[in-house]
Amino acid sequence: MNHNHARRLLWGIGATTLLVMAIPAAAQGLPEGKGKEQFERVCRNCHPLDIATRARHDKDGWTGVVEDMVARGAQGKQDDMKQVVEYLTTNFGPNNPIGTSTSRAPVTPAPAPAATPKVDESASQPGDAAHGKALYASNGCSGCHQIGQSGSRVGPDLTEIGGNRSYTELQQAIVAPDQEVLPENRSARVVLKDGTTVTGRLLNQDGFSVQLIDSKEQLRSFLRSDLREYTILTKGLMPSYGNKLSPSDVADLSKYLASLKGDSKP
Amino acid sequence: MNAKVLLAFAAAATLFGQVTSDLLLNSSEHPENWLTYSGGYFSQRYSALDKITRNNVKDLELKWVWRPRYLDKMEGTPLVVNGVLYTVQGNEAVAFDALTGRRFWTFEHEIPPKANAYLLVVKGLAISGNTLFWATYDGHLIAIDAKNGHAIWDKVLVDWHKGLQLNVAPLVVKDKVILGPATNEYGVNCWIAAYDVGTGKELWRFNTTPDENEPGRDTWPGESWKHGGGSIWVTGSYDPQTNLTFWGTGNPNPGWNGDPRAPGDNLYGDSVVALDADTGKLKWYYQFTPGDEFDWDSVQVPVLADINWKGQPRRVMLWANRNGFFYVLDRESGKFLLGKAFVKQNWNVGFDEKGRPMKAPDFKSSFEGKYIEPGVQGGTNWYSPSFSPRTGLFYISTWENYNAISRKADPGPWKEYTKYAGNGSRRAASTQTGRINPAGRPVPPTFRTEGEGYGAVRAVDPQTGEKKWDFKMVDYTESGILTTGSDVLFSGGREGNFFALDARNGECLWKTSLGGTVASGPMTFLVKGRQFVAVAGGAALYVFGLPD
């Protein structure tokens, strides 16, 4: 799904639930750039933005700060957090001038993790990405998934899947898709009081409402008080291709998916 | 000042009323007013007003909105005295006609940008007679004439260059205005002090980290007491019967690494202290989290209540702590009566007969990361709770199932105006592991599932500490809670909703969206026979009432 498009639609849903005027975020002289919107939206919820913009860190430092904030309850999608880190690193990196702000102690870097980095492991994995691409088309994957501008928004967007999931994880997702469903990819089933049932990918929820994208790619918003039933689904969303594809086809498809790193151009 | 403004003053002149000591002592008999941060000396955030009922609350409509010049999250609670609403945000204290939102005056205090060492929050004002008191981030205590918004006196209490600030709403008791500074992890020792309402002269002081020759100093090994912290950042309470004022204290420093201050309990960090309001002398204390390493400040509002306890009338204090436990203490003696977890927790295996918590054997901060329940923000935090004498229930803004992995780091030697926290990166614990971000670090989950933490308004029976009901949200909540004489409960959360519940069973009666996180305590007042409810959402103050 095109992120900007989706966000506009989501904002549209949110606006209908507002009973009083929405308050525009004050720009207050923030530098323009990719990730500004995410930075304002995610961070302002809990603290003044200048708490962040008065500090200077490199990418590692900002990653640590954002992780810290997530531990403190900051809310956003993984991609939002990535954008926030990039925005802060670009505009508030070690070499950016501090302006009128005070100097601050650097954040103590966290110790190196014990885990083995999986970055770029796909290069050494078997498979034929070109054949994988053909399999993607012939098996109708785009009926639910989107890559770039083509495909459906019903299932998870795969445009950058190779940057987020490893080759091994992708293999597993093709053969046993129920094994690990990321929270952002869960679906939900709602049953209205008149018995109408709607199933779709869960986009958002709060104490009073639920937002889905249904099987026809329509964005739907429901008040919980209008529902007879509301169930979050983590099983049976995608069929297993373990019996439909040979192991070497699974490897080829995984190789292709692992190669999808997105288009950095806006 | 133009003629129009003067005219407004003339029209309003009779509205500006004296807030005498008697009025403060008997605030519950004058529910048309809201006279302290928590509504009265017992800090119950309960009002006897009952014009807004469980039946008509659904008809509430927006009456007026104040949009301050300063556009960040508002955490303050306004005061209302005889139809005039006073509040503060950013660089300005303001007075409004509480009925219409028409502004009477604005008092501005420029704050040097560098003084905003950490959070730019202010919890509110205090009032005595016709004088308002504003404690500013940059360390001033300013007495403001409530009639015209002019400064009467302006005292610098702390030097922000040393890593201290003021953000609490002061508490007026008799001829004293009581408050203390916060250090925001800069490791500067803090205190609670009383200042003369007429002159600002300091009358007494209690050090929340003991000085060299004071009792409690032996709970700090070596020189560690010199940078112990003990911040004050939430308003205390007052019991006229015993003349005691009660205050919750912040964490010891360095907050996430206890090594420099071990072994020891690090008094009076994470405690409640009961002080004689005339002398500041310590009558008793109770430490909720001895030797804390997880930032579990005890800066909650001390809620006082006169209840039946085991069949006998008893004067108690009710306290839901950041460490995840709900406490009942005898407020005359400090005796521990009950301690019961109100959220999932993994640090305390029980209490000894004196009420001292027994820490789980392996519950120690580590460089690799320690899994903690509740997480660093706690099972609750500074969010104002409420006690309704009508339902007998205690209401908590809670973070349930919330956890974190807390890492300590070497804080190095203490340096002035430098964080002395000793924390490594903290992240949310989760079932999802193995994802690696571009910096090569495991990726924390940015989406919680419902089981991995949620916010709730939780009603607890003080007799047992047992949950009576929950009103669940998806996101966490930083909102305070208000209860009223008609058993209506008002609260909100980070989702931006503001809602009314039936205080008896948690049923939702009304809701609206404020377009921004609700991180303040709602309050209520009455003007010309009409009841209003005020709450801040995002960067604006909203006032709701029934249709005219």
Oligomer: heterodimer
Number of helices of chain A: 9
**CATH topology call of chain B:** Methanol Dehydrogenase, Chain A
| CATH architecture classification name of chain B | 8 Propeller
Number of strands of chain B: 37
In the predicted model, the low-confidence regions of chain B spanning at least 5 consecutive residues are: 5-14, 430-446
Question: Can you walk through the features of this model?
Answer:
The complex is a heterodimer of chains A (266) and B (548). Chain A has nine helices and seven strands. With 266 residues, chain A is of the alpha+beta class. Among the domains of chain A are: 61 residues, Cytochrome Bc1 Complex, Chain D, domain 2, CATH 1.10.760; 82 residues, Cytochrome c-like domain (Cytochrome Bc1 Complex, Chain D, domain 2, Orthogonal Bundle), CATH 1.10.760. In chain A, strands 6-5-4-3-7 form a five-stranded antiparallel sheet, covered by helices on one side. In chain A, helix 2 crosses helix 5. The radius of gyration of chain A is 21 Å and the shape is flat. The N terminus of chain A is likely disordered. Chain B has 548 residues and is mostly beta strands. Chain B has one domain: 8 Propeller (Methanol Dehydrogenase, Chain A). Chain B is built from two helices and 37 strands. Chain B has a five-stranded mixed sheet, with no helix packed on it. A four-stranded antiparallel sheet of chain B has the order 2-37-36-35, with no helix packed on it. Chain B is globular and about 65 Å long. About 5% of the residues of chain B have low confidence.
